[in-house]
């Protein structure tokens, strides 16, 4: 059997895991605690995925850096209390198991810091179904989504980005795929992308846009065939 994608990388929040109760609620409580006001049109769901330095640093005005650091520290402590509140999207486990059965290598590629990524992957049952778990590790030079993608590829021994697809639900994921040279599958059942007006822009240049886990499963598994003309 040959596969168009011999390696599939997955974002976590909004792609494998519905983590709104942990992240969205932690953001809401933090915003309320500090009397912050979100700009019109920015939903709490957009806090899911990017590091808080990006979300809190981007959408609010700060008189000084110390205040921003205080808010982020409060948010992080709140999130750590809630981090295991979430649910795996139905159909994800069968998908991961089917990819493994087809000989496709898989890895998490998340902007969560590496220790937390590993802890969550183990707790929610991803670790035993994936070949690797890759998170952000700024001390090791793994700071951006593209860095995370390249690090995951290196751990899996992948050299050709044309055989890799990143699955994600936001423009952060899309940018990481572009910068690392891999294909991108945009999923719309998560938090970043949406078909509703006023939300994040439609992803341009992605390989495919998918509305459900079932569509994602069909897309990834159809990329594996017995066709001798498929790339190896």
Set out the fold topology.
Elements: E1 2-3, E2 7-10, E3 17-18, H1 20-33, H2 52-59, H3 65-82, E4 87-88, H4 92-101, E5 105-113, H5 114-123, E6 132-136, H6 145-155, E7 164-168, H7 171-180, E8 183-187, E9 208-210, H8 213-222, E10 224-225
Parallel strand pairs: 2-5, 2-7, 5-6, 7-8, 8-9
Antiparallel strand pairs: 1-10, 3-4
Helix pairs in contact: 1-3, 2-3, 4-8, 6-7
Search tags:
two-stranded antiparallel sheet; alpha/beta; 232 residues
Quick take:
This protein is of the alpha/beta class and about 230 residues long. The protein is about 40% helix and about 15% strand. The strands form 3 sheets. A 6-stranded parallel beta sheet has the order 6-5-2-7-8-9, with helices on both faces.
Description:
The chain has 232 residues and is an alpha/beta fold. The chain is built from eight helices and ten strands. The strands form three sheets. Strands 6-5-2-7-8-9 form a six-stranded parallel beta sheet, sandwiched between helices. The protein has a two-stranded antiparallel ribbon with strand order 1-10. The protein has a two-stranded antiparallel ribbon with strand order 3-4. The chain is globular. The N and C termini lie close together (9 Å). 42% of the residues are buried.
